[in-house]
Amino acid sequence: MNHTLQKFCTARADDAQWTQGLRKFFEYRDLGINEATGGRYNAHVIRVKKPVAEFPHTGPHVHDLQFQMIYVLKGWIRFTYEGQGELTFRAGDSCLQPAGIIHDELACSDDVELIEFTSPAEFETHRINQDPT
After folding, report:
1. 12, 15, 33, 58: which is deepest, by most CB within 10 A?
2. How far apart are CA 59 and CA 104, in angstroms?
3. pTM of the complete model
């Protein structure tokens, strides 16, 4: 078994700090996984930033990463995925978004909370320009 160097890590709800992240209409709670794994992985909780001031639509995009998974804790969120169509995820639902899949966040409830897991922790996001013809 390959044991990579990792630090023991906990994240307590009482100590939660919410910060700005990739999307300005969401706020993010870092769970410490990035630091604990030397950047190999990340996990954070994402929720809608209150008050809801903007419709959460990202436009088609793709991430340069090897792994991305979401697990919905509360509320609902709707995506469209290349080759899969439009899907709505509710509390208890999960989705493994394969590396390189084009996707778009279409809408979400104002109480949505989800956990996102990625590898690597830091990655680039690229907008996909859709041909209007």
Report:
1. 33
2. 5
3. 0.86
The helix/strand/coil state of 117 is strand
Which of 2.60.120.10, 3.30.70.1150, 1.20.1330.10, 2.60.40.10 would CATH assign to domain 20-120? 2.60.120.10
* Sheet arrangement for strand 61-63: 85-90, 76-81, 103-108, 61-63, 125-127
The C-alpha angle 33, 23, 53, rounded to 5 degrees, equals 135
**Sheet strands side by side (includes 42-48):** 18-20, 26-30, 42-48, 113-119, 67-74, 94-96
The alpha carbon of residue 50 and the mean position of all alpha carbons in its chain are separated, in whole angstroms, by: 18
- How many beta carbons lie within 10 A of that of residue 38, not counting itself? 13
pLDDT score, position 133: 47
Q: Do you know the residue count of the chain? A: 133
Which pLDDT belongs to residue 50?
Answer: 78
